Amino acid sequence: MKNIIKWDEYLQLFENILNNPSPNPPYDNPDYFNYLKLNHNRQNRWLKKGELNPQLVDIIKGIKEKQSWYLITEPWCGDAAHSVPFIYLLSQINPNIELKIVLRDTEPFMIENYLTNGGKSIPKLVIRDENEKDLHVWGPRPDECQTLYQNLTKNEEDFETIKIALQKWYNEDKGVSIQEEFINMFS
Q1: Which of 4, 25, 33, 29 is nearest to 111 (CA)?
Q2: Cis peptide upstream of residue 142 (ω within 30 degrees of 0)
Q3: Domains of the chain, residue spans
Q4: pTM higher than 0.90 for the full model?
Q5: Which of 10, 76, 151, 158 is the least buried, fewest Cβ under 10 Å from its Cβ?
Q6: What is 4-141's CATH superfamily?
């Protein structure tokens, strides 16, 4: 699939967009371009400072069979900036795990098979065995954050209010919730 890239290509995608004086859509829109800049900084912060849960590290080390981790995402996604780094770090613990970044907005659209309440919410992690059978699906947010998001949208809060509330939640959580959910998922 042409929309599947490796981790280093995903990082390079950020750089290519940031360094392009005339980026392609949607990054030609200043809002999307600014989301990308913020997400680039947030992602890099978690990659440097994100702490992995020792219990989860042991679980990941214990995976004996080959797995493909399909991570459906896009650089503009604010939720991805907080979850994707932890998924990447976890995938690097065990050579039996191959991380494959799937761009949501490029054909073929893998996201169509993993909708959230009918929507194409990302990031979405699909973990498959060596026969490409789904073992686990996670996303688009940790449960507590998803509940916060649903409550804000139910109360018809504006986009800026939602964005700030979710950012605050992620900063205070520090990647703890996603890792606890992964412990439960793998147990």
Answers
A1: 4
A2: no
A3: 4-141
A4: yes
A5: 158
A6: Glutaredoxin (3.40.30.10)
